[in-house]
Amino acid sequence: MARVVAPESDQFDPLPILSARFRAAIAAAYPDAGEDIDPAISASRRAELGDFQCNAAMALSKRVGVAPREIASNLIKHVRADDLLLPLDASAIAGPGFINLRLRPDALAGLLTSLDTPALGVAVPDNPSTIVVDLVGVNLAKQMHVGHLRSMIIGDAVARTFERLGATVIRQNHVGDWGLPIAMVTHRVMRGAVRGDLKLDDLTLDDLDALYREAQAECSADHRGLAAVRRFGLGPKAEAELQAQVSGAEQALADAKRTLTRLQGQDPEVVRVWQRIADITMGECLEVCRKLGVAVDRSASAGESSYAGELAGVVEDLLERGVATVDDGAVVVRVEGFGQPCLIRKGDGGFLYATTDLAAIRRRVQKLGADRVVYCVDARQSLHFELAFAATRVAGYATKPGADGPSRLQHAAFGMVLGEDHRPFKTRSGENVKLSALIDEALRRAAAIVAAKNPQMSEVEREPIARSVAIAAIKYADLSSDRVKDYVFSFDRMLAFEGNTGPYLLYAVVRIRSIFRKAADRGVDRTDGALTLEHPAERQLALTLLRYPGVLQSAGDSLEPHRLCAFLFELATAFSAFFDACPVLGAASGDLRDSRLRLCHMTDRVLTDGLTVLGISALDRM
Ligand code: ARG
């Protein structure tokens, strides 16, 4: 069997290998054409003509002033690819100067055999990098919303991708658990407990969510209303009412500020209530993560509160080193290229969301040793992150001790979740959709579908299957759409067994496993037969499998899980075409059957591995 050797030995996909070979051929044949000539290798659009084509001759012709067909025949002479390609002659040249390339069947089989290792061709890096993934990011005393669902699903998939590529990954759940709004609700809960209106032990996240809103309303003084009443002379009664509202709000705000000071000073009475609020919120958050199979637990929590003690030091440090300046009583970091500065301390001495993120970047890079920090957060926070990243680079916080330059800071921004009416996803009454209710609804629907498809299965057997189908559907619908775009949440679409859906991919794996159950019954379930790839559908499946390591790498580089989804869908489609065209257990010979079983087995492994990277577990039956 032909072995395709170095310098591209870590590559399995013939496309980049052929690109390198043709690049070298161009350089040898036309040394004056310039370095940047694109060898323009692409998968062939017409399988009967070849597996790949080289379209370089046309652009090259403009550079060197030679007819493209002549260039094509010259490139054929120069390219060194006998180990990979069937012999190239004039018949390979088509149209204005395309070169059709057909892989040698033994080369294709050789590449695929070399991919058939436990790692499926994914190389382990010599120096694994450390990557911090910022994900989940829920807020205390508030119901999680669908934005958090995206942060969980995308963040987990991005983290799993890095892990699969051999990086050391540290997940950080930057919980919004500090600051004046938290103090407001803490104060409100304390007051309610003292008055006997509520019992700390019985509080739920729904109660807290309501108390949070009440506290917000209570603390916001209607200065405008009061001014209007005065301006329009609406009478003493109206004025007195608004005056009372304003003083009440001022009082509530003063109470909240005092509570914040007590919280910062670790006053046990306040800390106890704050802790209870944190426990209720995190309990529900981690329960949703568990239900979804998102690998985030308590140990990932590094909330805003964990930076509280560092904020004054950050501001002092930046002022001392002249990175920050005082502007009208506030402290700001000005960064070139931004219309607005990064505000890090307000005139009243309070710190901001950004201050915490500067401290977080410093800890993540300088303490946790991150070479790269990836924020899986809503696109609406883009400016915030750009400013914070730029400010920390100026401050030197983004550089590891002893490193030459700053670590990579990236915002993996995502769009909104829309309802089927293409408006922000809300309940009918306009409320945020509760995540646990959303997951339960998916479970209920998946259970009905699985029951309809498998009337013979017992309830006990069906339950875990329905669970996997539901989770796969939710996650895959999110991950397969372009991350930065908004996407429409539709139970019907995501749960369909046909099309680019999670259930369809699960089903592809199930089909393969059922072939192996039959093979085992007949005692022929080998997975190490020699590969013979002759049928176009076999070749297509093999060519698709070979792209896996490259796709994984590109999903990690680009922070785009949808690239992996698109690949897995292509793979499942290629498998389906193969399975329709090529009998496996009924193959014409035992050797062919063994080759096809091995192809099936590799497809199962790549699909299962890719799904795992997305946070989806494959099933044996469904
Ligand atoms: N709690 C924030 C929110 O709900 C998300 C936190 C994102 N992470 C960060 N490091 N700022 O919007």
Describe this structure in words.
This protein has 622 residues and is α/β, with parallel strands linked by helices. The chain folds into 4 domains: 94 residues, Gyrase A, domain 2 (2-Layer Sandwich); 165 residues, Rossmann fold (3-Layer(aba) Sandwich); 113 residues, no CATH class; 205 residues, Isoleucyl-tRNA Synthetase, Domain 1 (Orthogonal Bundle). 53% of the residues lie in helices and 7% in strands. It has 21 helices and 13 strands. The strands form 4 sheets. The chain has a 4-stranded antiparallel β-sheet. α8 packs antiparallel against α9. The longest helix is centred in the middle third of the chain and has 29 residues. Arginine (ARG) binds next to α12.
Helix content: 40-55%
Shape: globular
CATH class of the largest domain: Mainly Alpha
Overall tally of structural domains: 4
Q: What would you give as the CATH superfamily of the largest domain?
A: Isoleucyl-tRNA Synthetase, Domain 1
Hetero groups:
arginine
CATH topology of the largest domain: Isoleucyl-tRNA Synthetase, Domain 1
- Using only C-alpha atoms, the radius of gyration works out to 30 Å
CATH architecture type of the largest domain: Orthogonal Bundle
Portion in beta strands: 5-15%
Order of neighbouring strands in the sheet with most strands: 1-2-4-3
- Number of DSSP E strands: 13
Structural class category: alpha/beta
- Low-confidence segments, ≥5 residues, pLDDT <50? 4-9
Biggest sheet descriptor? 4 strands, antiparallel
Mean pLDDT: 95
